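Quick entry between incubations.
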Amino acid sequence: MFKKKDVFFSTFEEMANTIVEAVEYFAKGVKDLKDVSEFARKMKEYENKCDNYTHTILKELNKTFITPIEREDIMALTTSLDDVMDGIEACASRFEMFNFHKADEYVFQFADIIVRSSHQIKSSIDLLTHKKLLAIREYTISINQLENEADELQRKCIKELFHTVTDPIELMKRKEVYEMLEVTTDYCEDVANTLESIIMRNS
Amino acid sequence: MFKKKDVFFSTFEEMANTIVEAVEYFAKGVKDLKDVSEFARKMKEYENKCDNYTHTILKELNKTFITPIEREDIMALTTSLDDVMDGIEACASRFEMFNFHKADEYVFQFADIIVRSSHQIKSSIDLLTHKKLLAIREYTISINQLENEADELQRKCIKELFHTVTDPIELMKRKEVYEMLEVTTDYCEDVANTLESIIMRNS
Amino acid sequence: MFKKKDVFFSTFEEMANTIVEAVEYFAKGVKDLKDVSEFARKMKEYENKCDNYTHTILKELNKTFITPIEREDIMALTTSLDDVMDGIEACASRFEMFNFHKADEYVFQFADIIVRSSHQIKSSIDLLTHKKLLAIREYTISINQLENEADELQRKCIKELFHTVTDPIELMKRKEVYEMLEVTTDYCEDVANTLESIIMRNS
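Done. Structure below.
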């Protein structure tokens, strides 16, 4: 279907690698939030790096006549990968904006789910590059299951939040962090869905 | 355009029937919220049922070469129907998460709008199955009007909320319930818009 | 590519003009919020006007066999322009719903960003009408930069909000106004992205 080291696919790989790196930095970072501004700054750096890959792809798309997969699919995959990065960066920024120095067990669990999703995304992109389209489905199913896990976790921790926290501003802050973490797993699911359409149209 | 008992269309009908059933259960349920966990559990059951229909359609799409309407349209209609179900289930789950045992008149009014929208969706899907595409437009217009009604209702009740409720946590809970109910009518409108594009491309 | 006074393009121009007018009215209005209900009413009027243009385009699309650009692009551009108007109208409505009579410096800054974006949108639509597709890119880049500005502004003012405001209900109101203003710049960015795809497919 496409030659191995196509610029689109090698850039998708860079994006996936950057996402894995950023998400692992996030998961480690939330365990020690002493310097929230450094934490947020570093995550913003990952996001800028990912933005540059997005621009590379768009520029390439404008000067390439024949693309390895449909232009719409390249656009959709680029956007959905970029959304994952924006999502996790937005989560990190909340710790700084809310002056939040202590994450709880639930945040660690969300971070763990997102780390696992990011690895599944990376594996899927590798398979896409090597034209092993049907093998991707195993990973997209996993990503969907991880999103379900995150959804259940969110319901559990928001329920507990309303049962235990009485300070409304504290409640607001923690609720928004949980919700943004859950939304990030929705973005991972969007990557999976985009990959599913690419498989469907190319196999 | 397509044969009458096509698997895609019969599954869309099942989805629409399940949505009507779930929404009617919801509208009855909010009038008596003594057992919120049973209420939420039952709504989750409807959602799982709808998820299964979604998977049926996706699996079928992967093994079918010629589809009765464009693959993209089948995907978009499936997703938008599934979103309606996810929306109403998410509303129900809030009553449990927030330990909310008393819905107000506004919730009943939202529920009534969503019940009416779900019947319009069901009628539209029936017409789609029977290839009466142009007759669908009457229902999509109705669904749009119901969404406008819900939007006005939301503004009215959030205005009242800020005027009358002084407990910030109580306010937060009720605001989120109203907003989720309104979002569910947006999802109904997405179904209508998807049907509009299908009509446009096939008539 | 298309004849100069095509009904689709002239209606897009009307939509862009109405958006500029509404956004400028908004920016002036937030400086003096004595009569919030008149402010909200007038903004709703602009929104209705924009809705009528949307209906004109959809009706025209249904009776036109050959369109100047792809039907999907016409739909996407219509929807994204309509979203900008809905966004700014929703912002205005909050002042009334929240009984909010005093906007702050941050609201003025957001309004200024949105005014500038709306002019960039208008210029883009004019270029589209005159088939100067490649010249549009300068404006879409600008709109993206303005969205980035709004995103940074939002982070700054929400951070300050949590540092300075202790009344949770006051905090909730102002947070929602800032967020809705930022979301409106996202909608402007969606217009830019839609224009980018139109350029890509037609040049």
